[in-house]
Write a structure and sequence with these properties.
The protein is an alpha+beta fold. Helix content is about 25%, strand content about 15%. A hairpin with a 2-residue loop joins strand 3 and strand 4. The protein is globular and about 125 Å long.
Length: about 260
């Protein structure tokens, strides 16, 4: 045994250590388990689609909460400042317009003027349009309006507020006056024949929606307070504003468009 160990120790070095054993670590491929690990980790991050809501025998189910992020509070809460985001989105579901640009339910992508608060209307002559409101439409049941009925005088008041706004100058300059004829009927007199009265003044995204005069206070001092001034006849009621945090709206249980 001793002799054999001596012979091995004295043998040629090149024969004892093949060159391939040094190169193996540099060229060896990772084991299969190492390659599979990232694939498995990626697979666990694949999003899954939420289950589709199921229809009931009686139609769609109402309820739940929508949370919509906003970058900041609006610079003003005056409801007529409809071109200011994010108040424009809130305004569209708190108030109601005389006309809409869409049919209900939608029938196409075309914009069509559809009466909303108006029951019927007609031109009496080239410069006078007469419109009648749907009876029984109520403002939100909260102070200072307290759920009273929306009437023709509210339309006349709202038109006067809109006429003094810079972004409505083009449309409102064509209106001579608006007068309440009776509880539900009002007339709009234009300074010249104007075929775009409904489309451009009442139905477009910045168009006329109906306010309650008392929501602004005796001297208009409340128009900047959303919990007082944002009182309309729309499907949602403005409930609370926490500056820098959120504002909350709740479903209007007395919404005039029943079932919507």
């Amino acid at each position: 045994g001793v002799l054999l160990m001596g012979l091995l120790a004295c043998g040629p070095a090149a024969e004892a250590t093949p060159t391939t054993t040094r190169a193996a670590p540099a060229t060896a491929t990772p084991p299969v388990e190492s390659r599979a690990t990232p694939v498995a980790a990626t697979a666990t991050l694949t999003p899954t689609r939420a289950p589709a809501p199921t229809a009931t025998a009686t139609g769609p189910a109402y309820g739940g909460t929508i949370r919509h992020p906003q970058r900041e509070d609006p610079p003003t809460w005056d409801p007529v400042m409809t071109h200011v985001d994010p108040i424009s989105t809130t305004r569209n579901i708190v108030f109601s317009k005389l006309f809409s640009l869409w049919t209900d339910p939608p029938v196409s992508c075309a914009q069509v003027t559809t009466p909303v608060l108006v029951r019927d209307w007609k031109w009496l002559n080239d410069t006078t349009a007469e419109m009648t409101l749907k009876p029984g439409i109520k403002f939100h049941n909260k102070a200072p309006v307290n759920g009273r009925e929306l009437v023709a005088q509210d339309v006349a008041f709202s038109m006067e507020r809109f006429r003094n706004l810079p972004y409505m100058a083009g449309q409102s300059s064509l209106v001579d006056k608006v007068e309440a004829v009776d509880k539900y009927t009002f007339r709009i007199n234009t300074v010249q024949p104007w075929g775009g009265l409904v489309l451009e003044l009442m139905a477009n995204s910045y168009g006329l929606f109906v306010l309650a005069a008392e929501a602004g206070g005796p001297k208009g001092e409340l128009w900047g307070d959303p919990q007082k001034s944002l009182v309309g006849s729309g499907p949602f009621i403005f409930e609370k504003w926490t500056p820098g945090v959120k504002w909350t709206l709740n479903r209007n249980p007395d919404y005039w468009n029943k079932g919507k």
